[in-house]
Amino acid sequence: MEIQVGGNLGLSDEMNSNFSAAAMSRLGSPPLPGARGTLDAPNASATNKGGTASDARPFEGERLFFNMLPDYLEPGLDVVFIGINPGTYSNRAGHYFARPTNLFWSALFQASLVSERLTPQDDARLIEFGYGLTDLVARPTANIDELTAEEFVRGGESLRQKIIRFAPRIACFVGIVGYRAAYDRNARLGAQSSPGWGNTQIFIVPSTSPRNAYYRPRVVDWFKQLKQFRDELTAQGERHP
Description:
The chain is of the alpha/beta class.
């Protein structure tokens, strides 16, 4: 398994698929003061480059330099799951989709994509099941509107190169907002009809964030559709090696 840190740019557990047009219009605004490379938060704890929480101690308004969540990637995976960017909660925890109310980990099990119930602390173990993790934008934020249009463009190109390099069967975006901001504003959920990246097909599921109230009841169904799509591609590969 190859673990990379700080080079992943893109889609997060804090993202709402129903992101408003007003918020989208702010993507071109400059980043907040101290947003690049630092985290201003009382009582926050830093995370180390391995993606695990460092010693937590209170900070009263101190500025923290943060480390991004690591990529969990290796060549030839079945699916690489792509978040928009780390939320501040996940960044502090040092794990992907770490908020207890995020549906990502339960949806994997309920859709039979994994054979056991996993938690955010198992994120590095996803490799065992043939899955990887990365983000479209590496910088942690509390809200999507803190990201700039430039970050989406730059992150999108970096991610595309990364996916072509590791060549998973499927690149699955968790949430449609980041994909629309980086690649195609007219994209819809599910398998994308546009050409994939190399031999990788693109699939989009709804955001699993608790903020995504509209799609929340249907998240598991979309993960089941992802599993069906994966199984179909696997069968095709077995018939035409």
